[in-house]
Amino acid sequence: MNPFSGLESIVRQDEPLDMHTWYHLGGPAEYFAEPTTPDQLLELIRRARENEMPVRTLGHGSNILVRDEGVSGLTIHMVAEEFARIETDGTRLKAMGGAALGRTVTSSVHAGLAGLEMLIGIPGSIGGALHGNAGAGGTHVGQWLTEATVVTDKGETITRTVDDLVFGYRQSSLDELIILEAIFELKEDDPRRLARSMQQQWIVRKAAQPMGHQCAGCVFKNPQGATAGELIDSAGLKGTRIGGAIVSNRHAGFILAEPECTCQDIVRLVDLVRDQVNERMGYELELEIEIW
Ligand code: EPU
Questions:
Q1: pTM as predicted
Q2: Are strands 55-58 and 86-89 parallel, antiparallel or unpaired?
Q3: Of 133, 204, 215, 227, which is best to mutate to test ligand 1, by the most ligand atoms within 8 angstroms of its C-beta?
Q4: Does residue 222 belong to any structural domain of this protein?
C-alpha cells in the first residue's frame, strides 16, 4: 500500500535527485514530495511518521551532495510559490523558507533596507541559509533574524524568537525539519548606496570564486585561525583530480564536478584533501557541505 495514497499529485517515487542539486549528482529519493500548501506539508509529515519513514528537507540543493545510491524515506522539496514569498513592511522583511537568498537580498536592497547586501551571490534558499548560517564579507544571515516559524519532525508548527536561538560560524540552532518563514529586522538606508555595495560584493566574489561551475560553494569550513582555501592551496592541492572531481584552480575551497563525475569521486577527493591538509599543514578540515 502506497504510504502517500491520495497525494500522488505531489509525491513521486524514485525521483532522481541529480537535477535538484547544484552538483547534479547522486541517486534517487525513494519518495519525493513538492507540497504546495502548509496543509499538504503537514499531511506528508504525518504520513511519514505513521510509516516510520525518515524525512529530509531539500531547499535549492546548493550545499548538498547526494550519494550515488540515493536516499531512503521521504524528501520534501520546498519550492512551491506558497513557500517562496518575500514581503517588506517598514524595516521588517519576511521571507518564506523556500525563497531564494539572492532574491531576498535584492528585495531588501530595492526596499532600502541594509544588512543582507553582502550575502549577494550565495546560492540557496532562506531555509538552507538559516540552517547553515550562510555568511560572507563579515556578516551572516542569522544576525538579522528576529523570528522564525518552523515545523518540527512531529509536525508541530512553532515560532522561535531570537532570544532562544544561537548562530555561530556556519552553524545554527534553528535545526527543526522545516523553516517555513523568517522575519528579519533590517536598517533603513539609501537604496542606491546599497545597490552599489551589493554590485561591488558581486564583482569581488565572481573574481575569487568559481561561480557558474558545477559545484556547491565552499566544501570545508574555515578552521579556527586559518582558511580552508589557503591551507588546501598551500598543501599544493589545487587542480588535484579523482575521476571527474577536481580541486578548483581558482579557489581551493571549492571542488568542481566535471560531467562524468560521480558522488563517490567527490567523497574520495574530500578524504584525500582532508588527509593531505592534516599531514602537511596540521589542520583537521570539517565539511561545510552536507552529504546525504
Ligand atoms: N586563498 C588562497 N588560495 C585559495 C583560496 C583562498 O590562498 O585557493 C586565500 C586568499 O588569498 C585569502 C584567504 O585565503 O587570503 C581567504 O580567502 P577568501 O577571501 O576567498 O575567503 P574564504 O575564507 O576562503 C570565506 C567563505 C566564503 C565567502 C568568502 C567571502 C568559508 C568556508 N568560506 O571564504 O563562503 O564567500 O569568505 O566572504 O567560510 C561558503 O561558505 O560556501 C563560501 C563560499
A1: 0.94
A2: unpaired
A3: 227
A4: no
